Amino acid sequence: MPVHNTDIAELFRKIADLLAIEGENKFRIRAYRNAAQTIDGLSKNVAEMIDRGEDLSKLSGIGDDLADKIETFVDTGSLPQLEKLEKKIPVELVKLMKIRGLGAKRVRALYEKLNIRSVEDLSKAAEEGEISNLEGFGKKTEQAIMDEIGRLDTSGKRTMIFKASEIAHSLIDYLEEIDGVKELVVAGSYRRGKETVGDLDILIVTKRGVNASEHFVEYEDIKKVLSRGESKSSVLLDSGMQVDLRSVPAVSFGAALLYFTGSKAHNISLRKIAQKKSWKVNEYGLFDGDDRIAGRTEKQIYEKLGLEHIDPELREDRGEIEAARKGSLPDLITRKDVRGDLHVHTNRTDGHYSLEQMAEAAKKRNLDYIAITDHSKHVSVTGGLDADALAEQIDEIEEKRSKIEGIDILTGIEVDILEDGSLDLPDEILKKLDVVVCSIHSKFGLSKKKQTERVLKAMDNDLFQIFGHPTGRMIGTREPYDIDIEKVLRRAKERGCFMELNAHPERLDLDDAHCKTAKDMGVKIAISTDAHHTDDFDFLEYGVKQARRGWLEANDVINTFSPKRLRKILKKT
Ligand code: DGT
Ligand code: CA
Ligand code: CA
Ligand code: ZN
């Protein structure tokens, strides 16, 4: 197994934590933490640097001693020093240090006085009121610990956006019943359209005298109320998702929305701009001394800071602030710009509906065209089509095309890219199609070099149009295969190929960062649903969100084009 930089950084953090619990001197502890930070920030793989004989002790914060330790760890997968520490101190204690409000000293006191070794021990002791009896801990600390444990329950577990969206919609419907609601918005990563969401951050503005919290904590899907108060309450839902509800006054609504939408990095950059003008920005407003100079809307605040309004999906501190200052923000694609879907399956392979049913469903979603792209024979479990079966399907489409009104049906295939980079069907049949999506469905384990070459070679075929779900990842369940996307993008640019942004919420592949890279390199994207079911066309919403996070405009996305323009750019020969 290759050692990743994150493994080494984590190792050093663990040692630092254990040393802290042991009561080691703070300089030694800091040395490990600094080293972890250095390694986290490196753009090169440390194990590979060792292979090349590079001197690690040249890195900032890494002396000879730590350089030796890294080599030992990379060579053997363990470190004697860590093993020794682990014998003295239960490693689970390190987890306790992650609980906000518990430093090394307190963790040690809890261990020595109450024999608390794990989060479970801690939770039990807190509930039984043992902690508030300890010297240096009070009732308040005990309550804070209980709240944090509730939070810990859910941390690490992220919810996919479509699930989060379902949860958020029901909750919003429920909260809208409150009398006197003036504003109700889900902020946080959800509003930024991230592919997964940690928790939901809801903001509410109501008429004076309304206590929204009271209603909130009565929601039926609540497993546990973590805290309740008039301005802020937190609950844990049965689904495991945490929700924070904050009541804010209308004069601060824009400021609160900006603050709780984040991202944190974006907020920090805004704060710096305010500071340069000797102003202060927080969740209550933008202040010049004690004067609130903006706060009601986000736009006001951006304006005062000399910035154009920035769409939530861009707020990741990836250059959007600079662009907003210069007036060069992208005009982000919207769902309305999307006119067609270029990756659709039918019951000829593993889809569940007929061509007509899929066409009807697409029409209902205001699409002007779809391409039927069933699997090719290599994916035999789906009943993938061979050349004859595909020829039959082409005939079927041509025959039915005139009968299905109001939507244009393109012929197509999702053809497998075989291990040697050839396509699973002969050129003669591929040539007859409007749309050729090429995908990998086998041999995910190839080395990065081989996997990349497989795709580059496939792109040499003039009939290769769109690279389907380019990294093969499934969020939370399957890592992407090892592939050099930048190389692939460069070849796509040279060869006039397009990249898919597969809108299936478990894929969202390409991801946001790769979409931006593609755009910067001048490679266009197809946002496709990979629909197997009539409802799947609704996935377009998530694809568009991801595209917006990747700075894409309508013109960067080929399925915003008219059928005529699309047919023209798809033809290379
Ligand atoms: P998540 O829930 O993990 O998917 O991600 P977010 O972005 O929703 O983060 P969350 O729920 O911890 O906080 C919501 C927003 O509140 C976050 O995007 C920015 C803001 N925020 C939270 N903590 C801080 C902080 O320490 N400093 C600043 N400047 N902003 C913060
Ligand atoms: Ca959140
Ligand atoms: Ca939150
Ligand atoms: Zn596929």
Short characterization:
The chain contains 24 helices and 17 strands. The chain is α/β, with parallel strands linked by helices. Helix 1 (about 5-20) runs parallel beside helix 5 (about 80-90), helix 13 (about 255-260) crosses helix 15 and helix 20 packs parallel to helix 21.
User: How far is the N terminus from the C terminus?
Assistant: 45 Å
- Counting DSSP E segments of at least 2 residues, the number of strands comes to 17
Strand content: 5-15%
Bound molecules: 2'-deoxyguanosine-5'-triphosphate, calcium ion, zinc ion
Share of helix, binned: 40-55%
Q: Residue ranges: pLDDT <50 for 5 or more in a row? A: none
The whole-number mean of residue pLDDT values reads 94
Major beta-sheet overview: 7 strands, parallel
Overall 3D geometry?
globular
Rg on CA atoms, Å: 28 Å
What's the number of helices? 24
Structural class: alpha/beta
Query: In what order do the strands lie side by side in the largest sheet?
Result: 11-12-13-14-15-16-17
What are the salient characteristics of this protein?
573 residues, alpha/beta, five-stranded mixed sheet, 14% strand, globular, binds 2'-deoxyguanosine-5'-triphosphate, binds calcium ion, binds zinc ion
Can you describe this structure?
The protein is built from 24 helices and 17 strands. The protein is an alpha/beta fold. Strand 11 (340-344), helix 17 and strand 12 (369-372) form a beta-alpha-beta unit. The mean pLDDT is 94. Zinc ion is lined by residues 414, 439, 468-469. One calcium ion is lined by residues 188, 199, 201, 244.
